[in-house]
Amino acid sequence: MGELVIGIDLGTTNSVVATVQGGVPTVIPNRSGYRITPSVVAMARNGKRLVGALARRQAVTNAERTVVAVKRLMGRRWSSKALRDTVARMPYTIVQGPHEDVRIVLGEQQYSPPEISAMVLTELRLDAEAYFGAPVSKAVITCPAYFNDSQRNATKDAGRIAGLDVIRIINEPTSAALAYGFGKAQTEKQVAVFDLGGGTFDFTVLHMFKGVFEVEATGGDSLLGGEDFDSRIIDWLAEPFLKAHGVDLRTDKMALQRLRDAAEKAKCELSAVTSVEINLPFISATQKTGPLHLQATLTREQLEKLTDDLVQRCLKVCEQVLGEAKVHAGALGEVLLVGGQTRMPRIQTAVKSLFGRDPSKAVNPDEAVALGAAIQGAMLLHEEQEMLLLDVTPHSLGIAIAGGFFQKIIPKNTTVPTSAHHVFTTVKDDQPSAKITVLQGESDIATDNELLGEFMLTGLRPAARGTVDIDVIFDISADGIVSVSALDVQTGARQSITVTASSGLTEDEIKKATRANEDWMLGQKEDPKFQDRKARAEELFKEFEAIWPRLTRAAQDGLGQEPLQRAQAALSVARLQVAQKESEGLAASIDRLERMLGALKGALERGLKEEGR
Amino acid sequence: MAEGGKFSALLLEGLDHYRKGRMMEAVRAWEEAYLLEPTNLRAREFLRSALERIHAHMTPNTLAREAQRVQSDGAQPHPWLPPAPSPNTVPMAVPPPLPRTDPASERPPLPPPGPNTAPPPLVQPWDEGPSLAIPQLQEESAESGDETSGAWSIHREPLPIEAVAADDETEVWMRGARELVGLNDFSGALELLGKILARKPNDKDAMQMHASCDHNLTLMYESKIGSMLSRPRVAIPPDEVIWLNLDPRAGFVLAQIDGEVSFEDLYAICGLKRLDTARILCQLLEEGVVQVQGQEKAVAKRAMHRS
C-alpha cells in the first residue's frame, strides 16, 4: 500500500473523513459504521472520554462536561467580541488561557480549542486506520473561507496534536467545488456554494478557470444551522405538552435530550416522507397523573411553516453576499448544496426560486467537503498539476483611530496578495508617538473588532496637531501573512510588525499535547477487556487510598497489621499487572481486591458501630 | 393501599420494632410481609434475623411471658417460636430448628436459627437476586480466627431490650443504617443514610457508609447485568413500551438502548448515578424488556415491579 492521505471536513457540528481509492473519492465510515462523526467531545461522569455519537447523545444531560462547536473558539483571543458572544452561548466553562487565548474546562483539566479539535481528529484518524488497516499520517483539513490566519493555524495545530501531518488547509467551499468535479473544468465558471450545516450557514461565490479557484465573496450567519430547525420542532412538541400537563419538558434535561433526538430524527425523515409519528413514552410524570407520554404527528407542511423565517434568513445572507460580489443570482453557473440541512425540500425550492435554477445535488451534501479535501490530498500526494486556490480577505483590515473608531484599510473580500495604505495624522500638539492598533472586522467601533496586533511609532517630530503625517501600509502576502508598517512621512522614521497568527499554543505546549494524545491512543489500542479491568483496578486503587489513613488507625486499634500488609501486597501485584497489561491476572487481582476492600470496610464500619454504642 | 405499599409499610414497621428491641412485634410485621410476598428476599431475611435473635436471647421466663400474653390476647402461640417451658421442664439450650421448606409452598421456609449455629457463610441473601457475593469479612475472619466478624455478627450482639433514646433522630437513623448493612439491606441503609445526609451533609461516617452501600449495591446489580461490553437491545415492540410500568428515568435509559451501545457506554451517556443506571438496567433485563444477544429470555414480562 502506498502512502495514504485523508481529507477531513472538520465541521462545527459534524465531521467526515474521506480518501481517494483507485481514483474514486470515498467516504470512510467510522468504526460504528456511520459516515458522519459528530464533532463533540465529552468527559462522562465515569471519567471516560467520549468523542462523536456517544458524546452527542449525552450532550444535554451532561452539558457542562460536553464540548460542542469548539470550532467557534478556534484561534480566538480572549478579548475578542466574537469570543464573548460564543462564551455566553456555551454550556461548558471557558476560561482565559495563559497567552490571551481561551481554555475549556473539562472535568479537572483545561484544554485549548486545538486540543479538543485534536480529539475529534484523532477519532477520525483511528477510523481511517481501522479502514485501511495501516497507519495514516497525512491529511488535508478544511476550514471556512472566512477563517483568519490564527484560526487556520489553530486548525493546523489540532492536526499536529492528533499526529497528522497537515499538508494543506483548504477552504470548505473550494473543497465542495472540487467534489462536484470542477477541479479540471477548462471553461470559466462562477459558482455559488450554499452550505447549511448543523450550526452555521456559509454562502460563497467562487470563480473558477483552468484550475484557478478564486473566492470572490463569502459571508454567512454563524448562528444559523440545522440545530435551529430542530429547536423549532422541540418547541412545537413542548408547548402543547406544557399546556396540557403543566410540565415544561425543556427544563428537564433527560426529557430535552429525548426531544432533541426525536426532533432531529423527525426532521431527517420529513425530507423523504410527508408525515412522521413522534412517540416518546414515559417522557415525564406527575404525582397526579403518573407517567406521561408524548405522541404527535408532524407533517412536512407544518415543519416548513415552523422554519420559514430560518429559510428566509438564509436567503437574505445570499442576497447580501451576491450584492457584495456584484453578481446577479441568475448569472451564476451552478449553485452547489452542501451540509445535511440542505436535504430539506423547502431549502431546495427556496434556493431554486432565488437563483432561478435547480441547485446541483449530485454529491451527498454531508460528504461533499470531505470528498473534495480527499481529492486535493490525492493530487498533492501524487504531484498532479496543482490547482491554484486564490483566497480573499474574509474580513476588513484596518487600525483603531481617535475616538475609538475603526478605519478600514483593506476591505473585505479583497483577493490576496494585496497591499493598501492610508495617511493619518497626529491628534495632539507635540505628540511624541502614535500607537498603531491593527484590527480585523466590520464594525465601525474599534473594540467590536478582532485585535491582530499593536505597536508604537515613536520619535515623531514635535509639531502642532494635524501637521505630522503618518502613512500606515498593510501588506498581505500570498500565504496570507499580514504585515503592517507605519512611516513618519516627514522624518522617514518607520516601525512595523508582522502579524504572526498563533493558535494560542506555544511550540512546547503543542509538543506536550501531542505526547499526551499519543499516550491516549496507545491506551485505545489495548484490548477492551483489559481497558475495563484497568479502569476498575484504578477505581479500587483510589478507594484503598481513600480509606488507608483510617485503616492505619484501625490497625493500631486492634485490627492488626496483617490485613493491611496483605492488601498492600495485593495492590502492588495489581499495579504491576496494569503496567505489564496482564489482563487475566488482573481480573483475579480485582476479585481479590474487591473482597479485601469489602472486608476492610466492614471492619471499619463495625469499628464505628462499636464507637457509636 | 396497594399490596406493594402495604408490604413496604410492614417492612418498615418491623424494622422500627426491631430497632427498639420489640422482637415479637418485629416478627409479626415481617411475617405478614413475608406472607404477602413469599418470594421477597428482604422479608425472609429480616424474619430470619429476628427469629435468630429471639432464639439466641430469649430466656424461659420471657418465653413464658410471651405465651401468657398470647393466651390473654386469645391468639395462637407463634408457630415458629420455641414452646414456652412448663414449670417442670428444663429450659432448652438450643431451640429445635425450623423446618426448611420450599418457598413456593403455603408456609414459607425459614432456615434453622440457633444461637450457636453460625449462619451458612455461602448462602447469601442475594443468591436469588444479584449473583455477586457481598464482600464480607468471613474469609478474613476465618484466617484470623475471629468468629464474630462478618455481616452476620449482628445476631450475636446483645438484644437492645430498652427502646433507643431518641435524643437525636439522625443517631437513630445511623444505628438503623448499620443494622440494615448488617442485614445486607444496602438499599434500605441508603434510604436512611440519605435522610441523615439531607440533615447533616458533612457527616463523615454517613458519607463513608453511603459510599460503601452504594458501591456494594452497584456491584450486585452489575453482577446480574454481566459483561459491560455487551450491547443490549429492546426486546419488545415499540408500541408495547407504553404498557410497561416505568418512571421517566427508566424511560430515558430505555430510549438510549438501541443494540449499538454497550452497557458501559450506557452508563456514560445516561448521565445518572452508576447505581441508578445499574438498577434500571437490571430491572429492564429481569423483566425481559431488554435483552443481550445470546441471553434472550423466552417470555418478556410486561410490567416492572416496584418495591
Any descriptors?
heterodimer, A: 613 residues, alpha+beta, Nucleotidyltransferase, domain 5, Actin, Chain A, domain 4, 6-stranded mixed beta sheet, globular, B: mainly alpha, disordered C terminus
How would you characterize this protein structure?
- The complex is a heterodimer of chains A (613) and B (307).
- Chain A contains 15 helices and 27 strands.
- In chain A, a hairpin with a 3-residue loop joins strand 1 (5-10) and strand 2 (14-21).
- With 613 residues, chain A is of the alpha+beta class.
- In chain A, helix 6 (226-245) packs across helix 7.
- Chain A has four domains: 1-180 and 364-387 and 505-516, 2-Layer Sandwich (Nucleotidyltransferase, domain 5), CATH 3.30.420; 226-308, Actin, Chain A, domain 4, CATH 3.90.640; 397-492, Substrate Binding Domain Of DNAk, Chain A, domain 1; 526-612.
- The radius of gyration of chain A is 29 Å and the shape is globular.
- Helix content of chain A is 39%, strand content 27%.
- In chain A, 46% of the residues are buried.
- By secondary structure, chain B is an all-alpha fold.
- Chain B folds into three domains: 3-115, no CATH class; 169-225, no CATH class; 232-292.
- Chain B has helices at residues 3-19, 23-36, 41-57, 60-73, 138-144, 169-182, 186-199, 204-225, 248-256, 263-270, 274-286, and strands at residues 232-234, 290-292.
- Chain B has a two-stranded antiparallel ribbon with strand order 1-2.
- Chain B is globular.
- The model of chain B is unreliable at 85-167 and 297-307 (pLDDT under 50).
- Chains A and B meet through helix 7, strand 16, helix 13 and helix 15 of A and helix 5, helix 6, helix 8, helix 9 and helix 10 of B.
